[in-house]
Amino acid sequence: MPESAKKPFFDLDFDSLSSEIAEAGLPKFRAKQVWEAVYEKKIFDFAKMSSLPAALRERLKQRYAISAAEPVGGKISADETGKRLFELSGGGFVECVILEAPDDESGGIRKTLCVSTQLGCAQGCKFCASTARGFKRNLSSPEIVSQLLPFAEGGRFAFENIVVMGMGEPLANFDNVMKALHIINARFGFGAQRITLSTCGIADKISELASSGFPYRLAVSLHGATNEARDKIMPVNRRFPLEKLIPAVRELAKASGRMVTLEYILIDKINDSFKDADELAKIALSLRAHVNLIPYNTVEGLPWRRPSPQRRKAFFNALKGKNVSCTLRREKGSDIEAACGQLALVTERAKSAENGGEFRP
Ligand code: SF4
What is the Å distance from ligand 1's center to 118 Cα? Predict the structure, then answer.
């Protein structure tokens, strides 16, 4: 059976797997063995599950695909930001990047895996490569979970945190993303406090999370501290202006008891004035939120530029001067197109050129 016709393994809950095993005429404990092989030992190839009888390995292999997103390449930048590109069984590419940052607690390096949730994106943020070819489709929950698999080594994941911040807006693919996070948290045992969902500001869904007991961390891509600034670069602000977004974020922070992060990409002469810093400080202090300042990564074909190092530092100091909890991210991965959605876009362009200008995934 071709891989694309097989059922995704991650769609199976334990009861369904047990039924599959019973149907094969095998004892119940075999289901537990398969479950533990995938979720505890992190073996993602049925052929390598040596504790199973050969006939069961073959049966599972014929019927199920563990990975729904196959790595097709990857780049390691000079500063060791690793990025992998995946080809989805249904066609199209998504990317996944490991970001490295100093860990204040351990004094070592903290690795964070950034995963994608949609093919393209409909939100239209003006500075973002993911939106350049529009929205194609939502990723299924197995396609989201599969992005973790190539980063498992010796029964462990080679990263400490996950941030749902790659291509796509996670809250526009709500059900699949929640299901994927549940698999990662409840089945793989990856702690909820180590998972962050990042949204461009879909306020009604943030309120839904607040009332449903959202256990993970939330980051909001603010990128502008006034409606005027956000309107210039983020069309979502017309649907959910700050007077809707900020109360929803406050509601979630209160319900979860977790500190929210405000992501803020610093773009030259768009959102980097002292007045912007003042407005951002007011919002951050009112939410008791942490601000993560990210120098913009230039995207080919887009007009935006990152501010000078002096201007970035001045913006950071202005926030610090107002006692805002704040970090200024060191530039990582700019040599491997690490801005959101960039690697997939470059690959799509290369495919497009191969296909005589028409993009066919
Ligand atoms: S920044 Fe995020 S929400 Fe905005 S277009 Fe890019 S992927 Fe979509």
Answer: 10
